[in-house]
Design goal:
Strand content of chain A: 5-15%
CATH class of the largest domain in chain A: Alpha Beta
Number of strands of chain B: 0
Distance between the termini of chain A: 15 Å
Number of helices of chain B: 8
CATH topology of the largest domain in chain A: Rossmann fold
Distance between the termini of chain B: 13 Å
Largest sheet of chain A: 6 strands, parallel
Number of helices of chain A: 12
Helix content of chain B: over 70%
Number of strands of chain A: 6
Structural class of chain B: mainly alpha
Number of domains of chain B: 3
Number of domains of chain A: 2
Strand order of the largest sheet of chain A: 3-2-1-4-5-6
CATH architecture of the largest domain in chain A: 3-Layer(aba) Sandwich
Oligomer: heterodimer
Helix content of chain A: 55-70%
Chain lengths: 288, 225
């Protein structure tokens, strides 16, 4: 009973401290548990790997901000790196002002790491990758892109005319985009699915936070999305797949974070079990 | 009355019906009308930022003026708002502007702009930190409130436990088939429930849209009835 009383009256600061340790220690002493690749992740990887011809275009929607960057930023970097490894062109687009900063950071990071690992196959901003300028309007922007991408943005995020950029050669609208992967932790994913996929038939993949992933299984089954990266694990699975190709030396942020997430999840489950044991023992005692 | 109520209702009805009809008319004139509407929407959306700034400034300025509790934070909000905007206008968003390079001769076109600097080294760590605090509150809340009080609660608790464990490699290490169980839960029971909700929501959106176009739903105009 002493233990039950201790559990029932446990100060929440102890919980905070243990959780902090559960997250910090795995970063210092990584274990690296093996991971199975789930079908929704594999199908996006396989599509980029096998179904897009050289010079094809991958559009990445960076519709997230620093609050969800832990899960979504590794996705942006690894998908962009994968596309570059197959000599595809990468366009970043964002419907949120905050996403522009995220996309800019992902582009800087991927280009730097890529050019460091592949000095014989250097990639350039404006030639292989760019960020389309932020334009307000959310659904109007998605619809307008279906008509004419250059007319929607006019310039890239760096102030260059889209019509003069090599990366934009031959791209008019969604018909010239081979795959769009939308990265967001909000319902903006639906905007892309409804307007870009539903109205214009843009082939789409989804990258979302673990908590939102459950919402999009209907779209996988209806084939409106070819695949999905759900949370940090989805990003880590993709990093493992790209790692096998051995072409990109960038930091594997998602894989590094998986041990911390594993221990935090286990701690959550232990807490729930302990809380329930204390609840039932107390209830039984009160009943007697 | 005409400008505040009748005119907005007329605009909604005319453009709502016109855009529905446009969808079914593949004529070039219809296409050009559609493109014009999209341009208008984008332009109008840009103006909403002005309203947002005006409303934020007004709200915080009033708080400072009346010295309501925590009014000092409002000063920080206003200073941050104007300093960030000024840095963006003078220094550029992703590439330093010519003006910025003229003011600071050592700045190169490839350098990080002051706006991006504030984003990378202030906003990014602050916003990530605030969001990561959620994990601590969730842990404490799960410990105190997540109880198997009824059959429904037990079902939720067991499912949540399986999904939580199955979404990390450690779960797979404990039982190899766990990711497949999680995938099954998400693909079947979860999807069935989600789809039901989605269909309900979409039907609601269609009904509300029709009511707005016909002028039955008028709450968006504000001002009570």
């Amino acid at each position: 009973m002493k233990f039950i009383n201790f559990i029932s009256n446990l100060d929440k600061r102890w919980i905070y401290l243990i959780l902090a340790l559960c997250i910090i220690i795995p970063f210092l002493f990584p274990v690296g548990f093996p991971m199975k690749t789930t079908p929704p992740v594999k199908s996006i990887y396989d599509f980029i790997e096998d179904s897009i011809p050289e010079g094809g275009v991958v559009l990445i929607g960076a519709d997230y901000d620093p609050s969800t960057m832990a899960e979504l930023h590794p996705m942006a970097k690894v998908i962009a790196a994968h596309a570059l490894s197959n000599n595809l062109r990468v366009l970043f687009v964002t419907l949120y002002p905050q996403g522009a900063g995220m996309a800019q950071d992902a582009i800087d990071n991927v280009l730097k790491e890529w050019n460091k690992s592949n000095p014989e196959n250097q990639k350039q901003l404006g030639k292989d990758i760019t960020l389309l300028a932020y334009v307000p309007g959310v659904s109007a922007v998605v619809l307008k892109m279906g008509e004419d991408i250059t007319q929607t943005f006019n310039e890239d995020g760096y102030g260059n005319k889209l019509s003069e950029l090599e990366v934009m050669k031959g791209i008019k609208n969604y018909n010239d985009i081979n795959l769009m992967v939308e990265l967001a932790g909000s319902s903006v994913v639906l905007t892309w699915l409804i307007y870009a996929n539903g109205r214009y038939g843009l082939k789409m993949g989804i990258g979302t936070t673990a908590v939102s992933a459950a919402e999009y299984y209907s779209y996988l089954q209806s084939k409106q999305a070819i695949g999905m990266l759900g949370g940090l694990k989805g990003a880590a699975e993709y990093e493992h797949l790209l790692d096998k190709k051995n072409v990109y030396g960038g930091r594997k942020d998602a894989s590094i974070g998986m041990d911390a997430q594993s221990s935090a999840h286990i701690f959550f489950i232990i807490l729930i079990i302990l809380g329930n044991i204390a609840y039932f023992v107390k209830k039984r005692k009160e009943g007697k | 009355m005409f400008l505040r109520r009748t005119l907005p209702l007329l605009v909604s009805a005319i453009f709502g019906i016109a855009l529905i009809l446009q969808f079914f008319v593949p004529h070039p004139a219809s296409k050009s009308f559609y493109n014009m509407m999209l341009d208008w929407l984008i332009i109008v959306s840009a103006f909403t930022y002005l309203i947002a700034v005006q409303s934020t400034v007004e709200l915080h300025f009033t708080k400072i003026k009346r010295k309501v509790e925590g009014w000092q934070y409002s000063i920080i909000v206003l200073v941050s708002l104007f300093v960030t905007a000024l840095l963006g206008v003078l220094g550029g968003a992703f590439m330093p502007t010519t003006l910025w390079m003229k003011i600071f001769h050592s700045v190169k076109p490839t350098d990080t702009t002051p706006l991006m600097y504030t984003y990378l080294y202030m906003q990014m760590p602050m916003q990530s930190t605030i969001f990561s605090l959620l994990a601590f509150y969730m842990a404490s809340a799960a410990f105190r409130s997540f109880r198997a009080r009824s059959f429904d609660a037990t079902l939720l608790l067991v499912t949540a436990g399986i999904v939580t464990l199955g979404r990390v490699p450690l779960g797979e290490f404990i039982y190899k088939g766990l990711p497949d169980v999680v995938e099954w839960i998400l693909k079947y029971p979860n999807m069935a429930a989600q789809r039901g909700i989605l269909i309900g929501v979409q039907l609601g959106i269609i009904a509300t849209s029709i009511k707005i176009i016909l002028g039955i739903e008028r709450k968006y105009l504000g001002g009570g009835k």
